[in-house]
Structure formats: C-alpha cells, structure tokens
Specification:
Blueprint: E1 6-10, E2 15-19, E3 31-33, E4 38-44, E5 47-52, E6 64-70, E7 76-84, E8 88-95, E9 98-105, E10 115-121, E11 127-136, E12 139-145, E13 148-153, E14 158-163, E15 169-176, E16 184-186, E17 189-194, E18 202-208, E19 214-222, E20 229-232, E21 235-239, E22 242-243, E23 247-248, E24 252-256, E25 262-267, E26 274-280, E27 283-288, E28 292-297, E29 311-312, E30 316-319, E31 322-325, E32 334-336, E33 342-355, E34 366-369, E35 381-384, E36 388-391, H1 396-406, E37 411-412, E38 415-419, E39 427-428, E40 433-442, E41 452-455, E42 458-461, H2 465-471, E43 475-476
Antiparallel strand pairs: 1-2, 2-3, 4-5, 5-6, 6-7, 8-9, 9-10, 10-11, 12-13, 13-14, 14-15, 16-17, 17-18, 18-19, 20-21, 21-24, 22-23, 24-25, 26-27, 27-28, 29-40, 30-31, 32-33, 33-40, 33-43, 34-35, 34-39, 36-38, 37-38, 41-42
C-alpha cells in the first residue's frame, strides 16, 4: 500500500507518474519528465532547480549540470541550464536574482580544505562568480537569513557566517560543531545533522541564529544518514538516505518542530534513496538516487491535525454583547452570523500550534490579516493558514489552488471559502514559537455544516460540530 502520494520513474516512458493516496492531498494526475541522477534541489518562482549527473554516483564529478524544471507540470525547461565544473556539488539555495551552490570537492569522499560557493544568475544560468565565497572546508549545507548566508563546513567542523552582499566572512567559525552537513532555518534557529564522523546514526542539533550557540545538541535523535533537511509548517522533513545495517533508505522522517520528536519515521515509503529536499507550497519535492524527482503531499499528522482552522487566542468574536475575546466565550453564548442572526455556541475549545515564523505559505502555519489589506478589520487578525475568509468571488488561480488543496471549491453562507494561505493579502505571521489557538462550532441540525461569523470585523468561517468533536483534537471548554 502506498502511504503517501508520490511519483515514480517509468523506465519505458522516461516519465514520472503520480500515485494518489486515498487519504487525499493531491488531485491531479500529471506526468513529470525525468531528471537524470538528481541530487540537490531548490525552488525560485515557478521553477525547480536540480543538480544532476550524466554518470553514476561513485565516479568522477568533473561535469555536472543544473536542470530547470517547470513546477506547474514537471516538464524540463532546460536539462543543462547551467554547466558546473567544480566537482561534487553540495546543496543549493536561491535569493533574489541568484542561485548559490556549495562546491563540496572532487567527489564525496575527498576532503577539500579550500573550496567555494558559486553565484549563478537565475535569469540565464550564467555563472556570475565561481568563487563568490572562498576558504571553505568541504561546504555542503547552505541557509539564508536576513543579510547573511550560513555555510556548513562538513569536514571543517564549523558553520560559517557570510555576508550576502559580497561573500566575505563575518565569522568563518560562527558555530563550532562536529561535521555539520545539511542546514535549514526556521524562526530564530538553524538546524543541522552533526557528528557524522561518528557514524550515520546521530542527532539533529538546534542552534541560535542570534549568536551561533548550540541550544540543543541532541534536539532530535535520528538514526539515519540525512544529507538534506527542509521545513514546512509544523514539521521538519529529513531524508532517510542511509539506514545503518540496512543500506539505502526509501522514505523520509517527519519531525515535530515544537520539540524534535519524530512524528513519522517512514513517510513516503518507496522513494529508493531519497536525497535533495525542498518544500514549496504544500508539497515536498524529493530527489531520489534511482533517477527521479518525487512530489509528496505535506504531512498532515495523525488524525489530520495539520488541517485545523483556528483563531489566535486574542481574537475577538462579534456576539450579542459586542466583540468579546474568543477565550472568554462559552457554550450557549450567542454569536452574530452573516445570514442567520444570532446562533448559540455548541462547542468551543483550544489547543496549541507551533508557528515557524518564516515566509513559507503553509496551511499549518499562522497568518496575519491586517487592516491595510482588509479594510473591514478593526485590528490585525491571526488565523491558521487553512482557516477561510469568506469572499464573494475567487480569481482563477485561487480556484485552481483551492481545488488542488481540497479537491473542490467550498461555499459557506453563499460565500466562497478562501483559505488564508491562498490569499495574497495575508502574510505568514513572523512570531516564532508555540501559540494557543481557539475555535468554535455553532448549533446546527446538520453536524457537518458551518456558518459565517465576524472575527475582528472580518467575515470568516466557523468549524462544524463534526469537525470540532471528531477531528480537531482540541480540549473542549
């Protein structure tokens, strides 16, 4: 049984085929073209970029390429968009009009004491500066925050901090840590798998972006060799490339960002040697050693926890007594609806959510709606990405994205539901951390139905009685 939707290589047709998990998440049936021996992945705009080789993984890497792939349908725009002549590539990252790539060494077994990061134009694939940052020691992982790039010196036992303006060092040994490999930033922290010199079974460490201090050297105990990490919403994804005493892995490990615990150690089973990872929209793209790029739906957690539509605890709801904080409401209180007058609360509850505080538009993150973009708002409204604002009409893109995510368009009280993560007027909320969220269901003869209500002045949806009691996982008041 296929545990998650993914695409796999069809050797007869040289295409990727997408398989659909009955639990949902992907509704299209597109075919994706083959990228030969994909390795590192990154995304910019409507395109995915993948390093790849025309050779096997254990031979010379004098010649490798970056392929440019259309994210809409997986078609290859240019298989040799950029020619790389700097040996075995590490990870890639994009910022502004440029793509940056770590030049690890002649091959993956060779230590390089004076390696580089190259800067490439996203406009035409030309190499702007092959030695944009020099003096690195087998660099692999790359991450960007603000005006700085962070580079993992895998055999230099350090993470370097580099000026994005010119590639100069702020601090070549910004964080001293054993054999760092992948890097990913979420909120105020940077994460890496470290201690690789002691074997493939090791830890993911949590490091402060403020000063490079190690907050938790064993934040997540992961037992696989993990060259790439990515974060989407409440979860980190780690590729299970090598499993000790077993060989090449075939899945991802999903990690709770709130505490580093493992949510799922076998997500997307069937990948066969997962390598590069990148999160985009509500999908995870994975480069596999067998020669394909797979697309997985974002992990939803047990019981669909990633789909909670909720309000931040400081939200005010319009009642028969005016606007009151949602955390002060109780069953039986009368709530103003857009079409049905005042309706009593049937159930109300709360839970917690981890918000990464980054720019990714994930439905499991918190979003800020501001009066500047929504004139009817009395003040900022903070809601989860899958919580819908009720609108009279949707753009074609909003319709397509909604169908892609939910399988169909949704209507409440004769208004279209527009999820916050799909509304360009909302912005991912920058407050990283664990936050208390609340929601409510109003009395209705049909437990699957919901209403339109007013939160801080904005017309939004409630949840249904069925969702509140069966799927929310909330502590009911």
């Amino acid at each position: 049984m296929i545990p998650a939707p993914f695409q796999t290589f069809d050797p007869l047709q040289h295409r990727m085929r997408r398989f659909i998990d009955p639990s949902g998440g992907v509704t299209e049936n597109n075919s994706w073209s083959l990228v030969t021996n994909p390795f590192a992945l990154t995304v910019s705009g409507n395109y995915l970029y993948s390093t790849h080789f025309n050779i096997s993984y254990n031979t010379d890497y004098a010649t490798s390429y970056i392929a440019k792939v259309n994210l809409t349908d997986g078609s290859i725009v240019d298989p040799s968009w950029c020619l790389i002549n700097s040996g075995f590539p590490g990870s890639m990252i994009t910022f502004g009009d440029y793509l940056y790539i770590a030049n690890y060494g002649a091959n993956y077994n060779t230590f390089n004491n004076n390696s580089t990061v190259s800067k490439i134009s996203l406009i035409d694939g030309s190499i702007v500066d092959p030695s944009w940052c020099t003096g690195l020691r087998s660099p692999f992982g790359l991450a960007i925050s603000g005006n700085y790039m962070y580079v993992a010196n895998t055999y230099g036992n350090a993470i370097s901090k580099v000026n994005l303006s010119d590639g100069s060092f702020v601090d070549p040994s910004w964080c001293i840590i054993d054999n760092p490999l992948p890097l990913v930033i979420s909120g105020n922290y940077i994460y890496t798998q470290s201690g690789l010199g002691n074997g493939p079974a090791s830890y993911i460490s949590k490091i402060s972006l403020t000063d490079g201090s190690i907050v938790d050297s064993s934040w997540c105990n992961i037992t696989t060799f993990t060259p790439f990490l990515t974060v989407l919403g409440n979860y980190m994804y780690a590729d299970n490339y090598i499993i000790p005493n077993t060989g090449v892995g075939n899945s991802l490990t999903v990690i709770n960002m709130s505490d580093g615990s493992i949510a799922n150690s076998n997500y997307g089973s069937g990948l066969l040697g997962p390598l590069g990872l990148v999160a985009y929209s509500n999908h995870i793209y994975v480069a596999s050693q067998i020669g394909n790029i797979s697309q997985l739906s974002a992990y939803q957690g047990s019981g669909g926890g990633g789909n909670n539509l909720c309000f931040h605890e400081d939200t005010m709801i319009l009642t028969d007594r005016g606007y009151l904080y949602i955390h002060n409401l109780k069953p039986g209180d009368l709530i103003k609806t857009c079409n049905h007058g005042y309706v009593p609360i049937e159930s109300i509850g709360h839970s917690q959510i981890y918000n990464p505080g980054n720019h990714l538009r994930s439905k499991s993150c918190l979003f800020k709606c501001s009066p500047a973009k929504y004139p009817e708002l009395l003040e900022d409204l903070i809601i989860t990405g899958c919580h819908s604002i009720l609108v009279d009409d949707l753009t074609q893109k909003q319709k397509d994205d909604t169908v892609d995510m939910l399988g169909r368009l949704m209507i409440t009280d004769n208004k279209y539901r527009l999820m916050a993560c799909l509304d360009d007027r909302s912005m991912p909320w920058s407050e990283e951390g664990i936050h208390c969220i609340w929601h409510l269901a109003l009395e209705h003869k049909d437990p699957k139905m919901n209403y339109g209500i007013y939160a801080n002045g904005l017309l939004v949806e409630t949840t249904s009685i069925r969702m509140m009691h069966t799927f929310s996982g909330m502590e009911l008041a």
